[in-house]
Specification:
Blueprint (H helix, E strand, L loop, with lengths): L1 H17 L4 H23 L3 H11 L7 H10 L2 H25 L3 H14 L22 H9 L3 H13 L3 H17 L8 H4 L5 H30 L4 H23 L8 H12 L4 H20 L2
């Protein structure tokens, strides 16, 4: 079990080095970013920040409960050690959130968050369940239909935040719900399909990417429109800001699509993810990242679609 966690640390350090940052510098940077974002959320969302914060913490645990991953762990450890690994992983992942909640003196929610993390260490979910959840999206392209089924339980919470922002007259809470929605949609493009599912389209790389972008924008608008309309009606003085968030979300969704295929058929690695995050915190940086991702995606897809 000790060797497993040592291996995980080595893999994380290797990702940092691949990005050109030594781990001794990377960890302080990550801590500073985490603290800065946490402070921003608490400052903007005020009394509702702890609920959003706990929700984000719980959401980070979702991938640890995936069936294929846990089948692998079960094949590596005896039952007792397997549950120890799950408990330690869940505890370590929520520890930064718990520490910050304690810093904010929300002691009750810190305990609740830890108990939820403990319970989730016993839960396994199958991303490819035998039943099918209906979606408002077509099966081709697949990202939104699959993504919606895996995150359908999050949508009521996001739309509830929008409703709550109107009820308590807190625009920041409503703006956060819109941002949270687009962050979730960006995650739909984190999974790479088999190259065969790109090859069957037999399109030019440019047409393939354009088709993906059109689909992403269309479905992104469908999902975000209820939030935008509700906020525009009840916070009409902020309508330009709402439009800016909507436009920005669609633009970053477009970047996520081209970034996905910039590594195709390999998974999007940490350096690519860091570049995406950097462009979010410093929007002008997207003038560099987007053309880079687009040119790389055309190059990668050219080898597959013209095969």
């Amino acid at each position: 079990m000790k060797e497993y966690f040592q291996l995980r640390i080595k893999m994380l350090n290797r990702h940092f080095k691949d990005f050109g940052v030594e781990p001794i510098l990377a960890y302080p940077i990550v801590i500073l970013l985490f603290t800065g974002i946490s402070t921003f959320l608490y400052g903007k969302l005020q009394e509702y920040a702890v609920f959003v914060y706990c929700f984000i913490a719980i959401s980070t645990l979702s991938k640890l409960g995936e069936k294929k991953r846990n089948d692998f762990l079960k094949s590596c450890f005896i039952k007792r050690n397997y549950f120890k690994v799950r408990w330690i992983e869940n505890s370590l992942l929520v520890l930064p959130f718990i520490l910050y909640i304690l810093y904010q003196k929300d002691f009750f929610y810190a305990v609740i968050l830890y108990l939820i993390a403990l319970v989730l260490s016993f839960i396994i979910y199958n991303a490819t369940a035998s039943f099918t959840i209906p979606t408002p999206f077509s099966k081709k392209p697949f990202e939104f239909s699959v993504g919606f089924r895996n995150t359908c339980y999050i949508y009521p919470f996001i739309y509830w935040l929008t409703y709550k922002s109107i009820e308590v007259n807190n625009f920041n809470l409503g703006a956060f719900s819109l941002i949270a929605l687009f962050f979730m949609l960006l995650n739909y493009y984190s999974k790479i399909e088999d190259s065969y599912y790109a090859w069957i389209y037999k399109k030019s790389p440019k047409d393939f990417i354009v088709n993906k972008i059109k689909t992403g924008i269309r479905y992104g608008i469908i999902l975000s429109l209820p939030i935008c309309i509700a906020l525009s009606v009840f916070f009409d003085t902020y309508i330009l800001i709402i439009f800016s968030f909507q436009l920005g979300g669609l633009f970053y969704l477009t970047q996520a699509i081209v970034a996905k295929y910039s590594m195709f058929p390999e998974e999007v690695n940490i350096p690519i993810r860091v570049l995406i995050v950097m462009s979010m915190f410093f929007p002008p940086f997207i003038l560099i990242t987007f053309p880079y991702f687009y040119s790389k995606s055309i190059e990668k897809l050219n080898a597959v679609l013209n095969d």
